[in-house]
Specification:
Largest sheet: 6 strands, mixed
Strand content: 15-25%
CATH architecture of the largest domain: 3-Layer(aba) Sandwich
Order of helices and strands: EEEEHEEEEHEHHHEHEHHEHHHHE
Radius of gyration: 26 Å
Number of helices: 12
Structural class: alpha/beta
Shape: elongated
CATH topology of the largest domain: Rossmann fold
């Protein structure tokens, strides 16, 4: 376990100490950040008599890092110091700030909260988003098989971020009187919501980093929660890219019925629109980092799809060709409905009640995406939207 403190943060330098308690002979690497910018690194190997007297190894675990350009006093609160082990990449920790003279007052100030959210700019993730049965598996598996990107068949963990942050927001909203009423003497006034937001972000970054030492990784979690979380994912990983896989409601729900038994027709419709509408809501905040692909387009144009993905991710020529080849032949687990099949509404076999539900639940979303109910796939007045960089 890593122990230590950031003892001093001054305009020209930071000082402190850090030790890996189970390996006291190792000297940790110290990374210094300010407002998300990496200012540099040093080694915690300086001897300090006070550390030796306190039993902190042999006392040689202090550090001092001088800034190339002195910081403004207002920037000092945004300085973050992280200690990490070179021998064990899973050991890393943000060092807390030391509170001097702990007996000088009965009530201390609250925690120092940087003005900027935590951001891990050393990682290059790509998030494959979309509703289930829309081609997310095909694209994610092709990326992992053909390019520098590593990943699992399914992610299914990072969408925990959304309910955590929602619960935090609801908690602080419920406690608002304790925060804003002047005569309330409460601890919560000292701990702003952004303190926990940043801590949660750091927790997720620390969980993922050891799994992908090469820094290029792919996550496929086809849930609406994951789509809603995309802007926060971009805060945590500023180099993130997003590929959204969509599919017309008729084909998607037809495939869902064959795959997911025991789910009502209306719930199948709701599951489709929840992802499609979540994407419409967040995509504007991800501009310049996203690609919107229709599964039908990928099935018909694997080479064009690979080229668009390559442009988004800056893949080299060999990776692009390998990706195109994989998309041409890749067949992930699927129902008996062909991914390239387009059906007319009259051929689906749904009864009048089902069509009434479909029109009520899915109709506005179908219109928003320009989808038709015939074999044209898109309405005649809509230009092909199968591959759109946003």
């Amino acid at each position: 376990m890593i122990g230590g403190f950031l003892d001093h943060a001054e305009p020209d330098q930071v000082m402190g100490w850090a030790i890996e308690r189970e390996r006291p002979d190792e000297h940790l690497v110290i990374d210094v950040y300010c407002s998300g910018r990496h200012l540099g690194s040093t080694i915690a190997d300086k001897y300090r008599p006070g550390l030796a007297k306190g039993g902190i190894g042999d006392g040689d675990h202090g550090f001092a890092f001088r800034f190339a350009t002195p910081l403004e006093p207002a920037e000092l609160g945004a300085v973050i110091v992280r200690a990490r082990s070179e021998s064990n990449p899973t050991l890393a920790r943000e060092l807390p700030r030391f509170v001097a003279d702990p007996d000088s007052a009965s009530v201390r100030p609250g925690p120092i909260v940087p003005t900027e959210p935590f951001g891990d700019d050393a990682q290059f993730p790509v998030f494959v988003l979309g509703a289930p049965r829309s081609g997310t598996s095909a694209v994610a598996q092709a990326l992992v098989a053909s390019t520098r990107y590593a990943g699992f068949a399914e992610g299914q963990i990072l969408d925990l971020l959304s309910p955590l942050l929602n619960a935090l927001a609801h908690f602080y909203q419920a406690k608002m009187d304790e925060i804003v009423i002047p005569d309330r003497n409460t601890m919560i006034k000292k701990v702003p919501q952004r303190y926990f937001v940043r801590a949660i972000s750091l927790l997720f970054a620390d969980a993922v980093r050891p799994m992908f030492p090469d820094r290029y990784w792919c996550d496929k979690t086809p849930t609406a929660h994951m789509i809603w979380t995309a802007p926060r994912l971009l805060d945590i990983w500023p180099n993130a890219r997003f590929i959204f896989l969509k599919r017309r409601g008729i084909e998607n729900i037809r495939s869902r019925i064959l795959k997911f038994h025991g789910v009502s027709f209306e719930d199948q419709c709701v599951h489709w629109i929840s992802c499609m509408e979540a994407w419409r809501s967040v995509r504007g905040s991800l501009a310049g980092r996203t690609l919107e692909l229709d599964q039908h387009f990928v099935a018909r144009h694997p080479d064009k799809s690979a080229a668009a993905i390559a442009k988004l991710l800056d893949l080299d020529a060999a990776e692009t060709e390998a990706l195109a080849k994989t998309l041409r032949h890749h067949e992930p687990q699927r129902s008996s409905v062909s991914i390239s099949e387009v059906v007319d509404a009259a051929e689906v076999g749904w009864d009048t009640a089902q069509w009434a539900i479909f029109d009520r639940v899915c109709g506005p979303t179908m219109t928003a995406y320009g989808y038709s109910r015939d074999k044209g796939y898109y309405v005649s007045t809509v230009k092909e939207r199968g591959c759109v960089a946003l």
